[in-house]
Amino acid sequence: MPYAWHDTSPTDRRLMIWPHRSLPVTGFVWVMGLTALGLALPMLAVVGNAVLWGLLPFAVLVGAGLWMAIRVNNRAGQMHELVELTPDRITVTRHDPGRADRQWQANPYWVRLSLRSKPVEDYLTLTDGGREIELGVFLAPKERRALRDDLTRALETLRS
After folding, report:
1. What separation, in Å, do the N-terminal and C-terminal C-alpha atoms of the chain show?
2. How far apart are CA 7 and CA 85, in angstroms?
3. Rg of the chain (C-alpha set)
4. For the segment 58-68, what is each residue's pLDDT rounded down to a tens digit?
């Protein structure tokens, strides 16, 4: 699951939620290496020929475009949510790259979790009666259901 609980004290807990990353750094190196190899092999046939200089800019453009596309995707994958539970407060902080952090706080006694079928499957929300926020926007429906169960248990433990 792309989330993890950390106990910071006997009564305080911290939950980190992050999106699933399908291409780790080693995978990025492999993709770029295989792409460079795949682009270089056909050009070996035209080494020493003027055609090489016509093909080279396109090969470089393809390699640079793939590099930039993967880096932009990785930057977007740096978003995460931090849920801090204490006996008197629940704090949800959402970090999106390039934007200021957004924060929501409430008394855990009044917080309710709900799963809805719309606007997306298993839409997970937290509410304190006044304001409602979405949690785990980047998770799959199965992961949001598991997160709801874990967070419900944590809130019940905190309230008792």
Report:
1. 27
2. 10
3. 23
4. 999 999 999 99
DSSP 58-80: HHHHHHHHHHHHHHHHHHHTT-E
Tens of pLDDT, residues 16-32: 998 888 888 899 999 99
Nearest-angstrom CA–CA distance, 159 and 86: 10
CATH (residue range 3-19+80-159): 2.30.29.30
Closest CA to 156 of 124, 111, 91: 111
Cβ count within 10 A of residue 58: 10
Can you read off the two tokens belonging to residue 25? 């750094």
Residue type, 125: T
66, 38 contact by CB (below 8 A): no
**pLDDT the model gives residue 1:** 66
Q: Is the pLDDT of residue 78 over 80?
A: yes
| Spatial distance between the Cα atoms of 72 and 149, rounded to a whole number of angstroms | 33
The reported pTM is 0.74
Give the start-to-end residue ranges of the domains of the chain.
3-19+80-159, 25-76
132-134: strand order across its sheet: 112-116, 123-127, 132-134
Instruction: Report residue 48 CA to chain centroid gap.
Output: 47
DSSP run (H or E) holding 83:
strand 80-86
